[in-house]
Amino acid sequence: MYTTSSGLLHGKRIMITGASSGIGAASARLFADEGASVVLMARREKPLCDLAEEIRAAGGRAAAVAGDVTSPGDVERVVSVAVEAFGGLDAAFNNAGWGARGTDLHETADSAYDRIMDVNVRGVWNCLRHQIPLMLDQRTGGTIVNTSSTAGLFATGALAPYVAAKHAVLGLTKAAAAEYGARGIRVNALVVGTTRTGLTEQNPRGGPQRPVATRAIQHRMADPSEVAQAAAWLCSDRSSFVTGGAVPVDGGCSAV
Ligand SMILES: NC(=O)c1ccc[n+]([C@@H]2O[C@H](COP(=O)([O-])OP(=O)(O)OC[C@H]3O[C@@H](n4cnc5c(N)ncnc54)[C@H](OP(=O)(O)O)[C@@H]3O)[C@@H](O)[C@H]2O)c1
Fold it and tell me: Which residues contact 97 (CB under 8 A, 6 or more apart)?
């Protein structure tokens, strides 16, 4: 884990979904280390609360709210906690997602399609629908980062719902950036390449991204902290002229 502690996110109040493990947890640690107050969301309460406690014990500011991004009510509750605990929201990292290497498209169950679209697309939709009104009300602008994937740019086999979902995340990102740019809200997506997390390590079929790793110019998986660094930059004022972007953190995978 990189611990630069440059104060990159000093004073920022940032909501992170999918914070109980992987890229989200690495981002929570990094953002807090860089001076942000973080509001963490995921379904599993124990790892989420343990992480918030770890951050507070290290002198950071963190709140944890267990919830499901597919539920608008749960997302609304997390946004409310950002206001109650820290007085508002300056940035959001909408990172919760899920996908499993499945079967051919014609053999994929409708329920699998629904679940993958729900978590990856409706989850981001729910977040945007509750974060943006607060940012508009605050009149201080804001920055939002959504987690897409190299699967949001090109297809890999037996992953049709995930490929469709991550393409949709890029579409939502561009639409929101276009609509709210003049009102001070930047919206970007991370095009994440294969990253060593539960998604790639615990999935018995290798996770949705593992075959893509072989395409990467750097011929390796990312560490979650490397993705967190890009998310931190996009949440910071240093990326002030970047919006509507699909920012690759993929070891060069999308270049070849
Ligand atoms: N790892 C890769 O190779 C890779 C590559 C490209 C893109 N991505 C994307 O990166 C993001 C993070 O994944 P990861 O690799 O860090 O995997 P991970 O360790 O499995 O993390 C996924 C996170 O999303 C949360 N989550 C899943 N469903 C949720 C729901 N319905 N509501 C709220 N939280 C939910 C999980 O927490 P709970 O289970 O506690 O809810 C967990 O914190 C995802 O969007 C994934 O698609 C990953």
Answer: 18, 119, 120, 123, 147, 149, 165, 166
Greatest Cα-to-Cα distance within the chain, rounded to the nearest angstrom: 52
Beta strands in the chain (DSSP E): 13-17, 37-42, 61-66, 91-94, 142-149, 185-192, 246-249
pLDDT of amino acid 203 = 57
Query: Does the pLDDT of residue 71 top 80, yes or no?
Result: yes
Q: Residue 45 and residue 67: Cα distance in Å, rounded?
A: 8
**Residue 162 is among the residues annotated as catalytic for this protein:** yes
15, 16, 20, 51: residue to mutate for ligand 1 pocket, most atoms within 8 A of CB: 20
Give pLDDT, residue 209: 56
Best substitution site from 98, 115, 130, 148 to test ligand 1's pocket, by max atoms within 8 Å of Cβ?
Answer: 98
Percent of the residues in the chain that have a pLDDT greater than 90, as a whole number: 86
Distance of alpha carbon 244 from alpha carbon 85, whole angstroms: 30
How many whole angstroms from 183 Cα to the centroid of ligand 1? 30
pTM score, whole prediction: 0.96
Residues with CB under 6 A from ligand 1: 17-24, 42-44, 68-70, 95-99, 119, 147, 149, 192, 194-195, 197-200, 209
Nearest ligand 1 atom to alpha carbon 120:
45
Average pLDDT, the chain: 94
**Which residues are 145's β-sheet partners?**
93, 188
Q: Rank 67-71, 103-107, 200-204 by mean pLDDT and report only the highest.
A: 67-71
Instruction: For residue 139, report the distance from its CA to the centre of ligand 1, in Å.
Output: 31
Q: What's the sign of the alpha-carbon dihedral 4, 96, 157, 163? A: negative
